[in-house]
């Protein structure tokens, strides 16, 4: 995979006010260019300041992370019959969502309770959560022949947990910005959650709390931290680290409960003693950070053919869930050829191709009504902005 040697570009305001995938929609981006100048060319904006371009590194990272998410879901039913598939699954699950969450935290650094940012949180996270939770429920009723499956917004089904988690994390961002030791506090909360089975399943709070440290890590990062992991020495060191992780995963596959990587249950619910929740939470946090650093080290920093797809990763994430679950409901994995080495390779390529297509601009235009609704009718007009326009 090609890498970039250039330093990180400045983080743009549009990237700071990011959606769940860490990037604004094409509609908002285009609207911003029309109002402020042509950001892509770097020409001065209307207020005299030079326009800033999006940083290709983060769009590349989001796209590659969402491809790994889709591939991981494709490998899941293959684990019982293939130790290699199980090893790949464990390795990818150790860092793909942490990477995505760290990026989301990084682009949440400027979040506050300002009216426009709260509106974007509602329209870009809360509304898609409600719509897709309902859509997934009806899909399960139809595809799984389960007409009695209830609609509930308190217990996220399948992929929608990330949206409710991001909603909660972002609302708490101002708190993490004022505490003295945010990461130790977040780790303490994650450890306590891992040994507290009484938390229950409402709002998938186990995941919200156990993944919280990664979001807080993102909040504390600065551009220079990403420059550190993209140095040549780190890229070279990342190769044996990932190779070692794969070897360890191959050894651990038949010995370890992969549910630890989901962070959705306490240690007791996984049949382990309570103290193992403390050990596993801290150990997996450290391992995940190392693998995330290796992942970032090899993410290209220049514009590539998939850079533009980084703005559509939330589309790919939510939409590919219908195919991932449908493949189980319709018993696609009963085909023997899928369990052969060549079948597994082909399935991996298909998963990567499908999620790539779901991130493309045409798909974004079709589903923008659900992912990024304007909903101006739902909010009170901004009195300050209106007065400024009148002047």
UniProtKB/TrEMBL annotation:
Where are the bilayer-spanning segments?
86-108, 120-139, 151-169, 233-253, 273-298, 305-323, 343-363
Determine if Transmembrane helix is one of this entry's keywords: yes
Q: Does the keyword Methyltransferase apply?
A: no
Pfam families in alphabetical order: Acyl_transf_3 (PF01757)
What is the top-level taxon of the source organism? Answer: Bacteria
The terms under GO molecular function for this entry are:
acyltransferase activity
InterPro entries (alphabetical): Acyl_transf_3_dom, Nod_factor_acetyltransferase
Q: Where is the composition biased (Low complexity)?
A: 1-13, 35-51
- What are the Acyltransferase domain coordinates in residue numbering? 56-359
Q: What keywords are annotated for this sequence in UniProt?
A: Acyltransferase, Membrane, Transferase, Transmembrane, Transmembrane helix
Location of the region described as Disordered in the Swiss-Prot/TrEMBL record: 1-51
What is the recorded name of this protein?
Acyltransferase family protein
Instruction: Say which species the protein is native to.
Output: Streptomyces lunalinharesii
């Amino acid at each position: 995979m090609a890498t970039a040697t250039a330093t990180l570009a400045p983080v743009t305001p549009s990237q700071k006010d990011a959606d769940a995938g860490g990037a604004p929609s094409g509609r908002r981006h285009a609207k911003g260019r029309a109002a402020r100048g042509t950001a892509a060319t770097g020409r001065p904006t209307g207020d005299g300041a030079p326009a800033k371009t999006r940083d290709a590194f983060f769009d590349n990272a989001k796209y590659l992370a969402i491809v790994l998410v889709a591939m991981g879901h494709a490998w899941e039913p293959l684990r019982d019959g293939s130790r290699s598939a199980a090893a790949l699954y464990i390795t990818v699950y150790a860092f793909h969502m942490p990477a995505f969450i760290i990026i989301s935290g990084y682009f949440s650094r400027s979040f506050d309770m300002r009216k426009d940012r709260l509106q974007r949180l509602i329209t870009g996270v809360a509304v898609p959560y409600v719509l897709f939770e309902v859509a997934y429920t009806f899909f399960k009723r139809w595809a799984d022949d389960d007409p009695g499956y209830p609609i509930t917004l308190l217990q996220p089904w399948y992929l929608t947990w990330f949206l409710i988690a991001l909603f909660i994390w972002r609302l708490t961002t101002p708190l993490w910005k004022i505490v003295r030791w945010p990461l130790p506090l977040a780790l303490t909360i994650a450890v306590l959650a891992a040994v507290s089975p009484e938390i229950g399943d409402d709002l998938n709070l186990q995941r919200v709390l156990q993944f919280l440290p990664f979001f807080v890590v993102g909040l504390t990062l600065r551009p220079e931290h990403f420059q550190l992991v993209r140095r040549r020495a780190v890229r070279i060191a990342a190769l044996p680290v990932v190779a070692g992780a794969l070897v360890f995963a191959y050894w651990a596959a038949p010995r370890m409960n992969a549910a630890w990587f989901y962070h959705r249950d306490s240690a007791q619910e996984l049949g382990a003693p309570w103290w193992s929740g403390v050990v596993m939470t801290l150990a997996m946090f450290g391992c995940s950070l190392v693998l995330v650093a290796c992942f970032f080290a090899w993410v290209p920093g220049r514009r590539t053919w998939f850079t533009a797809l980084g703005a559509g990763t939330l589309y790919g994430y939510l939409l590919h869930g219908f195919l991932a679950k449908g493949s189980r409901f319709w018993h696609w994995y009963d085909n023997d050829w899928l369990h052969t080495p060549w079948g597994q390779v082909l399935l991996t390529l298909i998963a990567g191709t499908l999620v790539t297509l779901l991130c493309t601009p045409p798909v974004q235009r079709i589903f923008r009504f659900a992912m990024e609704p304007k909903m101006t009718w739902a909010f009170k007009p901004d009195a300050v902005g209106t007065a400024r326009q009148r002047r």
